């Protein structure tokens, strides 16, 4: 009897800690595989957050960030008085929304089309072909696009001139620069994003399709009532992540290909931060712009996740 009382009186906290310790020890090798990823995010994502305090200080390289004078919201006040800031802010929103509108559904459509291919060899060839651009850097792709789209000696404009039309300034005319950026972005990224949706499609129960066929459903009805609802959670999570990065309009791509002639439509927050921070040496103002962008991204991902949960989806947390 005393033994039973002793066991029942054991603190629950110790039992939970013992269970957690046993669980971690059982799966220790799985968690050891996480160590490189944790180190990466700590070193390259969390440690640099220390530099965000520069947005509230008058930075002096001789004394470092901690020793620099605290100036409060001075740089934010100065930032919101700059007309250029509102221009790059609007450009960022505009480019990101276009990228989201046309770039987000495209890999879903391609994944659904690939899922309908019944010949494995043909499917593998197509998949490999659309994955390749993802592994090519924007520096290389920038050179390729310049050779293809140059108004003077580009292959595309050479064909246009051969047909008797005037050459189009895809990279020099502000009317065509953004569409060119969006199309090239979709071409580079849609193959990799397609992998995620193809992986989600493999989890759909084949018995659902068999039951639908028995009920007389055609391929379109199976797509609408079975396939899309089955991968809706994956689509929602990907959409939340894209909305959370709405203030990131593709720095590498635009930085490689833009020039002063298209600054009016192509200059985004990231390129603006690069110029005023590294080229002009205004580190405090650049930090303020970067911190402002991060706060907006955080608010967007929290809001998008909240809306998703209101509609019955799990969201990202």
Please provide a written account of the structure:
There is one protein chain. By secondary structure, the chain is an all-alpha fold. Helices cover 71% and strands 2% of the residues. It has 19 helices and 2 strands. It has helices spanning 2-8, 12-26, 28-32, 35-46, 64-67, 74-79, 83-103, 105-115, 120-131, 138-149, 155-162, 174-201, 206-214, 219-230, 232-244, 251-257, 263-266, 269-279, 283-310, and strands at 57-60, 68-70. The protein is globular. It starts with a helix and ends in a 7-residue tail after the last helix.
In short:
The protein is an all-alpha fold. Helices cover 71% and strands 2% of the residues. Strands 1-2 form a two-stranded antiparallel ribbon.
List the topology elements.
Elements: H1 2-8, H2 12-26, H3 28-32, H4 35-46, E1 57-60, H5 64-67, E2 68-70, H6 74-79, H7 83-103, H8 105-115, H9 120-131, H10 138-149, H11 155-162, H12 174-201, H13 206-214, H14 219-230, H15 232-244, H16 251-257, H17 263-266, H18 269-279, H19 283-310
Antiparallel strand pairs: 1-2
């Amino acid at each position: 009897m005393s033994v039973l009382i002793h066991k029942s009186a054991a603190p629950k906290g110790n039992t939970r800690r013992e269970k957690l310790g046993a669980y971690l020890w059982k799966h220790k090798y799985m968690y050891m595989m996480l160590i490189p990823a944790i180190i990466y995010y700590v070193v390259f994502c969390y440690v640099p957050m220390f530099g965000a305090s520069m947005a509230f200080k008058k930075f002096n390289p001789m004394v470092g960030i901690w020793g620099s004078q605290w100036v409060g919201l001075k740089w934010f006040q100065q930032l919101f008085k700059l007309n250029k800031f509102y221009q790059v802010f609007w450009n960022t929103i505009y480019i990101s929304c276009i990228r989201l509108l046309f770039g987000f559904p495209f890999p879903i459509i391609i994944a659904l089309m690939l899922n309908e291919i019944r010949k494995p060899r043909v499917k593998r060839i197509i998949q490999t072909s659309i994955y390749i651009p993802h592994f090519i850097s924007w520096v290389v792709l920038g050179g390729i696009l310049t050779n293809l789209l140059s108004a003077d000696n580009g292959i595309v404009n050479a064909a246009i001139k051969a047909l008797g039309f005037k050459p189009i300034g895809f990279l020099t005319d502000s009317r065509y620069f953004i569409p060119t950026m969006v199309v090239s972005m979709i071409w580079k990224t849609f193959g990799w994003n397609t992998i995620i949706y193809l992986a989600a499609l493999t989890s759909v129960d084949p018995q659902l399709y068999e039951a639908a066929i028995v009920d007389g459903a055609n391929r379109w009805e199976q797509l609408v009532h079975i396939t899309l609802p089955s991968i809706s959670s994956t689509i929602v999570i990907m959409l939340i992540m894209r909305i959370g990065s709405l203030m990131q309009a593709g720095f590498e791509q635009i930085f490689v290909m833009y020039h002063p002639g298209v600054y009016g439509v192509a200059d985004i927050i990231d390129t603006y931060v690069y110029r005023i921070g590294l080229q002009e040496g205004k580190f405090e103002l650049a930090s303020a712009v970067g911190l402002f962008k991060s706060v907006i991204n955080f608010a967007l991902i929290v809001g998008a996740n909240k809306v998703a949960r209101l509609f019955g989806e799990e969201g990202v947390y």
